[in-house]
Design a protein that fits this description.
The radius of gyration is 15 Å and the shape is globular. The chain is α+β, with helices and mostly antiparallel strands and 175 residues long. The chain has a 7-stranded mixed sheet with strand order 1-3-4-5-6-9-7, with helices on both faces. It has a two-stranded antiparallel ribbon with strand order 2-8. The longest helix has 16 residues, at 100-115. The protein is built from 5 helices and 9 strands, in the order E-H-H-E-H-E-E-E-H-E-H-E-E-E. The protein has helices at 14-25, 27-30, 48-56, 100-115, 130-137; strands spanning 5-8, 41-42, 60-67, 70-80, 83-91, 120-126, 142-149, 159-160, 166-173. The mean pLDDT is 93. Helix 4 (100-115) links the parallel strand 5 (83-91) and strand 6 (120-126). The chain has a single domain, classed as Gcn5-related N-acetyltransferase (GNAT) (Aminopeptidase, 3-Layer(aba) Sandwich), CATH 3.40.630.30. The protein starts with a strand and ends with a strand.
Length: 175
Amino acid sequence: MTDLEFRTASLADVDAIVALVESAYRGDASRQGWTTEADFLDGQRIDRQLLIELIERKDARVILVERDGQLLACCELQDQHGIAYFGMFAVRPDGQGTGIGQRLLGEAERIARDDWHCAEMRMTVIDIRNELIAWYERRGYQRSGEHKPFPYGDERFGIPLRDDLRFEVLRKPLA
């Protein structure tokens, strides 16, 4: 794992990021890994225009993990007034379970803590994703009990296949 390279995404990376995120969460290809949402969400996982806007923001970064120039994983990190928001976390399905995701999460926490001086990292996870929530809990994240509605009707975030989806906020102190 020492040959992994971390870098901040540019607009030239948009198509590769969209392909990576879609492969990790949607369609049959995503079933290769354990992060698939294909059983409860259809449609796109990421909106190309929203990704472009995110890359251009001054208070955000899209972090990429590469090996030999090949994109393996990505995440978004936003500085929300001293609290870091972590999202758009995707690892290629054939690379899941290899430690790449854990390394990327650690790098995101390092940036939030050391570069941005954030005291806490937060994220939202669909609350029926028990295996994924347990993975984050093993890395120090705690369920907050705070829930946010799923954006039903906004196909930029997917087409729900069930009517009980909502997000739960997970948090971890960084100091």
